[in-house]
């Protein structure tokens, strides 16, 4: 993982040192938590699957009635310049679009676009090798298809997750599972069918890649997944940009399958790592 103590960031048409990148308190992100963002990985100084992340970012902005002030070509130029200047070949990049400096603290104004580069928080070796434990909570994300900056529920639940000795919390409504605060969810059924919820979830870029890779080896289903399906499952895992494919071995104190990291999860993690490497070579 690379780090740079004095990285550059993009804010309001300028590339400036991150330490002087400030927004005014009148911004709707501060006043009302209004904005969208996206986050992608940089490996070997290459932004991975950038087009997919840009498409989702512009689509989230549209859903929230916010206009991105740069075209996709212009934003790509800024991203490439930051990568070159910051010299963080293994890192993450965040694009944030806020509601802008609102005159009355409520009406949207001209959106502010911020792009920052960070070191990448990857799962620990222990989490990858032994899998993680999760709890569940009743909740459904508002406007689930958009990647908004509202993570209030996930952040409120951090204490509960920790107090139960777990690593994350899976959202469901009346037993129908959706996603984690920051990841998508998959199960592997007894016949090796790989299934993931289709409704009320963010269309994760890793979810899309894993579905494509899984379809080459197994049956795949984008369908309703219930808590009962998890109880009957052979394996379960989460996917996200930073976590890739991370196995889940326990839910609400009960083991999933045999309580160990499963073969399908391991295979798909390896497939994804190789897929990322092929992207870099291209
Ligand atoms: C709500 C939600 N679901 C799923 C994901 C995973 O998406 P991706 O694979 O594009 O990182 C994220 C990522 O942050 C998220 O915020």
Automatic annotation (TrEMBL):
Signal sequence residues: none
Reaction(s) catalysed (UniProt annotation): L-leucine + 2-oxoglutarate = 4-methyl-2-oxopentanoate + L-glutamate; L-valine + 2-oxoglutarate = 3-methyl-2-oxobutanoate + L-glutamate; L-isoleucine + 2-oxoglutarate = (S)-3-methyl-2-oxopentanoate + L-glutamate
Pathway the protein acts in: Amino-acid biosynthesis; L-leucine biosynthesis; L-leucine from 3-methyl-2-oxobutanoate: step 4/4; Amino-acid biosynthesis; L-isoleucine biosynthesis; L-isoleucine from 2-oxobutanoate: step 4/4; Amino-acid biosynthesis; L-valine biosynthesis; L-valine from pyruvate: step 4/4
Transferase found in the keyword field: yes
UniProt cross-references to Gene3D superfamilies, sorted A to Z: 3.30.470.10, D-amino Acid Aminotransferase, subunit A, domain 2
Alphabetized UniProt keyword annotations: Aminotransferase, Transferase
GO molecular function: transaminase activity
Catalytic EC class: transferase
The EC number(s) this enzyme carries: 2.6.1.42
Source organism superkingdom: Bacteria
Entry's family note: Belongs to the class-IV pyridoxal-phosphate-dependent aminotransferase family.
Matches recorded under PANTHER family: AMINO-ACID AMINOTRANSFERASE, AMINODEOXYCHORISMATE LYASE
Protein known as: branched-chain-amino-acid transaminase
Organism: Rufibacter roseus
């Amino acid at each position: 993982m690379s780090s740079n103590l004095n990285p550059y960031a993009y804010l309001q048409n300028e590339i400036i040192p991150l330490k002087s990148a400030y927004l005014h308190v009148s911004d709707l992100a501060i006043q009302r938590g209004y904005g969208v963002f996206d986050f992608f990985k940089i490996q070997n100084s290459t932004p991975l699957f950038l087009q997919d992340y840009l498409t989702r970012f512009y689509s989230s902005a549209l859903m929230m009635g916010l206009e991105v002030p740069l075209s996709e070509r212009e934003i790509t130029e800024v991203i490439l310049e930051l990568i070159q200047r910051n010299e963080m070949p293994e890192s993450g990049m965040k694009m944030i679009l806020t509601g802008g400096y609102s005159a009355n603290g409520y009406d949207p104004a001209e959106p502010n676009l911020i792009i920052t580069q960070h070191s990448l928080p990857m799962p620990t070796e222990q989490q990858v090798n032994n899998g993680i434990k999760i709890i569940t909570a009743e909740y459904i994300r508002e406007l689930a298809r958009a990647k908004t900056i509202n993570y209030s529920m996930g952040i409120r639940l951090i204490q509960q997750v920790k107090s139960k000795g777990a690593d994350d919390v899976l959202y469901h409504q009346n037993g129908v599972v959706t996603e984690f605060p920051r990841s998508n969810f998959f199960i592997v059924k007894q016949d090796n069918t790989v299934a993931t919820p289709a409704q009320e979830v963010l269309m994760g870029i890793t979810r899309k890649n894993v579905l494509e890779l899984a379809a080459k080896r197994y049956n795949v289903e984008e369908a309703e997944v219930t808590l009962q399906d998890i109880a009957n499952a052979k394996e379960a895992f989460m996917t996200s940009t930073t976590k890739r494919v991370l196995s889940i071995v326990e839910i609400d104190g009960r083991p999933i399958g045999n309580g160990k990291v499963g073969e399908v999860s391991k295979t798909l993690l390896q497939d994804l790592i190789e897929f990322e490497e092929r992207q870099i070579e291209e």
